[in-house]
Specification:
This protein is of the alpha+beta class. Helix content is 41%, strand content 13%. The chain has a three-stranded mixed beta sheet with strand order 4-1-5, with helices on one face. The longest helix has 32 residues, at 101-132. The active site is at residue 72.
């Protein structure tokens, strides 16, 4: 269980052995047969983490490379696969353990703002490179 607001860096394709709440587990133990083992988000989660932490919200933010090989990881990997890496997944601790809903809401707003800012900067770089060539 998360104790910080956790930015998931990547989704993993293999290792799904546990049953979900509906007693389902993929026969192949993977999300997408033939898909890459790991897909990273195009969003630089370390930068998002550093920028949000530096803003002084008082909510701990961390980066993870393993969303847990359960529904979260399965959903994230599938989303990353279908969006060619243009996806994000954030684990949030339970309310009151230790943060209030208001604190978590402020932290999530800041995280989303930083993600959008980084994506805007990446798009500007791509457009500049296209004009140069």
């Amino acid at each position: 269980m998360a104790t910080t607001v956790t930015l998931e860096k990547c989704g993993r394709n293999h290792g799904y052995k546990g049953l979900d709440n509906s007693s389902f587990c993929p026969d192949t133990q993977c999300c997408i047969v033939g898909g890459p083992d790991c897909i990273n988000s195009v969003i630089d989660m370390e930068s998002v983490c550093k920028r949000v932490t530096a803003s002084g919200l008082g909510v701990a933010v961390s980066v993870s490379k393993d969303a847990g090989r359960y529904l979260c990881d399965f959903t994230y990997y599938t989303s990353l696969y279908l969006s060619h890496g243009r996806s994000a997944f954030v684990h949030v601790p339970p309310l009151g353990k230790p943060y209030s809903g208001e604190d978590l809401g402020r932290a999530l707003q800041a995280i989303i703002r930083e993600m959008l800012e980084l994506l805007d900067q990446a798009e500007e770089k791509i457009q500049c490179q296209q004009h140069i060539h």
